Amino acid sequence: MIDSHCHLADEVFAPDLAEFVGRAREAGLAAACCILAAGDAGEAARARAVRAAWPAAKFAVGVHPHQAHEAAGAAGPLVCNQLTGDVPICAIGEIGLDYHYDFSPRAVQQEVFRSQVALAVGQNLPVIVHTREADEDTIAILREAGAGRVRGVIHCFTGGAELARQALDLGFLISLAGIVTFRSASALRDVARTVPDDRLLVETDSPFLAPVPHRGTRNEPAHVVRVAEALAELRETTIEAIEAHTTRNFHGLFGA
Ligand SMILES: [Zn+2]
Ligand SMILES: [Zn+2]
Fold it and tell me: Of the ligands numbered here, which is closest to the C-alpha atom of 66?
């Protein structure tokens, strides 16, 4: 199994990093994609520790919409600086729009998102997209960049059937997180049944968002197995099939 999106270089994991990596491996995880906040020197240093503890881990870097206001006008160069750092970068992310929290003005979020999508297209890297209550603008910006030119994944998908359809039309993958284990998330569970096998990824978004039965505790990459189990049940298939598809899709998007 592969956790397509976690924040393993977050400071909360640092004191017991070896323990979390050990538990991920024991749970059968072959790899993970570790998301880094562009320009965060502490996180960049911890990323080196993650790479040393888990050589199979991959890394992505981007300016999150929550931090867009701090990077306005400079997001591209900020990310660019980290593309040739000490850990290899396989994607630009997470980037996008978050109109739920609106921590940055929407126009600024859009400008920062757009510039990073352009950078990804120029670098031929996939994007990892965070979108919350911003479906239309997210799809519009991705469309502007051009279907077939921009590729990537909508991470921690929480949208409805329409966003899923539009993302799939653009050639994007859809990554599902622990929310699919919540019985209350019936619309999302319906989407989870219909994503084609070759477009599906699983993730934890740890340390955020723990799945059932770990809800309310600190999430960690090993818990991605719970997400895969929930998907196997929803899609009436086996966890081995979910593992095979999501592993192939992960490497197809982010490289071997
Ligand atoms: Zn996110
Ligand atoms: Zn995240």
Answer: 1
